[in-house]
Each structure stands twice: as structure tokens, then as C-alpha cells.
Specification:
Aspartate Aminotransferase, domain 2, 3-stranded antiparallel beta sheet, binds pyridoxal-5'-phosphate
Length: 394
Amino acid sequence: MRRTKEVTVRVSRRIEELPPYPFAEIDRRIEELKKRGVEIINFGIGDPDIPTPPHIVDELRLQAARPENHRYPSYQGMRRFREAVASWFQKRFGVELDPDREVLALIGSKEGIAHFPLACLNPGEAALVPDPGYPVYRSSVILSGGRPLDLPLLEENGFLPDLDSVEAAAWDKAGMLFLNYPNNPTAAVADLSFFEKAVFFARRHQVILAHDNAYSEITYDGYRAPSLLEVPGAREVGLEFHSLSKTYNMTGWRLGFAVGGAEAIAALGKVKTNVDSGVFNAIQLAGVAALEGPQECVEDTREKYRRRRDELVGALRSLGWKVDPPRATLYVWMRVPDGHSSESFTRELLERAGVVVVPGPAYGPRGEGFVRFSLTLPDEELREGVRRIREAFA
Ligand SMILES: *Cc1c(COP(=O)(O)O)cnc(C)c1O
């Protein structure tokens, strides 16, 4: 038998430039502990454990049975869905949107975010991406041939970027700026005056603002998150991403939307026309039921997470660790105790308490010195995790 010569598949430079999977080492340790019979409590995953409200599931069942929903959907989303988005947006933020030109259905907001640099950034152009930040901003810039430039989010600035301190040279190179408030992973929030400033800078330096508002509805203690589009003139410089994933516990359904200026929406729509064929109509119609139906389910969700937040933050504080209760998102972002790095503290939590958290640098180098706890695990598991942490570190 003749042995075939080994061939290496040539992958693109863009693929090689993507940051390595940040959880590989943690995953390996989790597997090791599991093999030894340790039951792991996982505060690492940001994926709601709460089921999708039944009226939304019922609507999917109904719509999935209708043959007229079985064909290719329209690229920009059903008119019915875009209308529901526009009226939800008007009710929620007081902002009027043209459902034909200023709304686009997405296969989850991640899809839209990942494709946006292809639509509005040129190869070689830079994009300012928050550090720490949701990893998709950075990787989508790399995949589109652009260059990510770190925009530091520092604790002393409430994890808002200091736009005044971005150098002129960086603004010159940049064609895009990503923002995300309420923020993952830091749980920071931004008020309208911050967005006004961001729009001012975006205009002055001619960069496109891409705001990820996936957590607009996951807020606590009476706090209501604004939309970028509440700022006059914002839609001329930017676009905002929304998701049904966190609001209605629909992460697996893959439904989100982009809203903003007609040109940016059309450009993103053009990318999508060439890449995908839209969202299953039955899912869009279930999304309509979510947006137009009773909203008590959202209040219930907020209340569940608030209770978990208070339980976790109370326990962490009782150990003398410095942490503020977040006003939004599904996360608690905590500075690690003195003498620890993110990595060493993550390891200690895992080995002494069987508890998994995400080390801050998984979201960028400025995440060093922090860890992220997620609140998306069932109450009993969260309580058990809290009990173990108290016991191990008391
Ligand atoms: C969860 C999350 C999303 C939502 O993603 P979908 O694709 O809509 O499920 C977007 N941005 C951030 C920062 C998130 O954490």
C-alpha cells in the first residue's frame, strides 16, 4: 500500500489571526474534576436556564404547522415582524422607526454584529472594540479584514470608554466603533449623556457607531436602559442591535433585529442577502407574539435574576470581596481578592469549591484582575455554589 502524503489544509490568514478559544484550559480542568466525580457548579455560561414563556412556544407550534410559513423567508424579515419591532421600539424608547427602511430581522443579534463590519468597514480600516468586551466585535472585525483597536474600559471610569482620550491617529484610522451598554462582561450601564457624547465623536470623526443593546430589558432596581437612537441624529451615524434571546429567554431560537439609519441597514441587508436566507417565518411570528404579547414574563425574569444577584453578591461581600450589585445584565463582575490574578483565582474557585467562573482576560487583556459570574443557573444550583464558596473561603 502506498501511503498518501500528508497534506495540510491551508487556512486563511484571517482564521489564523482570530484569538484562541479562551476556555480551552478551563474546559480541560473541568473535565478532569468531573472524571474524579466532582460535581461542578457552573457560573461560567451566560445562557438563561429559564424556559421561553408558554404563549411564545404556543405561537411557534401554531405557525410551524402552517404550510405558508415553510418557504424561504424574506431577506429583511417579514413585514409583520418589522412592524412589531417598530411599535415595540416606539412604546419602549419613544423612537419612531420606518419598518421598511430602518428595521432588519437577524438570526440572533450575534449574526448581525458579526456581519456588520463586512457591510460598513473597509479592509485594512480599524474598528474600536471595547476591552474587555463581547468577543464577537473583535473577531468580526478580523474576519472582515479590518483591524481591531482596543478601547479600554476601566473601573475608574465606570467601565465606560474615555472617548476624549482616544488619540487623533486612532480616530483617523477608525471606521467603526462598537459599544455595548448594559455591558457584557462588566455589567456597567451608560446613560443618555454618554450616548450623546458617542454620537458627537462618531460624527466628528466619521466613524459608524454599532451599539449592542442585547441587555436593554435585563435591568434592576428601577433602572431603565436607554437606546442609542434616543439621541437626535444617532441614526445618521449608527445602528443598534437588539435580541429576543435574553429578554424572552429565547437564546436557542435565534431571533434578533437591527435598527438604525436606512443606509447602514441596507448595507447589512445586502451582506445577508448574499450569505443567509433569513429567519424561519414561524419563529418571526412567535417573535411578534413575544413583542406584542403580555410583558409580565419579562418582569418575572428580571425578578428571578435580581434575587439571584442579591444572593450571590451578598455572599461574595460577606467574604470581604469588593463587588457592587449590577444594575443590569446577567453578570456579576468582580475584582479578584488581593494577591490573585484572574487565572489563579479562577483555579482556586474551581479546585476548592468546584465552582466555575470566567477569568476576565477571556474578554480582553483589560479584563485582568476580574472574574465574571453568570446568574443563569437554576436557583438550587446557585445556592449550592454560594454555599460552597462561603465554606471554602470563610
Ligand atoms: C447574549 C449576547 C448577545 C445576544 O446574542 P444573540 O445572538 O441575539 O443570541 C449579544 N451581545 C451580547 C453582548 C451578548 O452577551
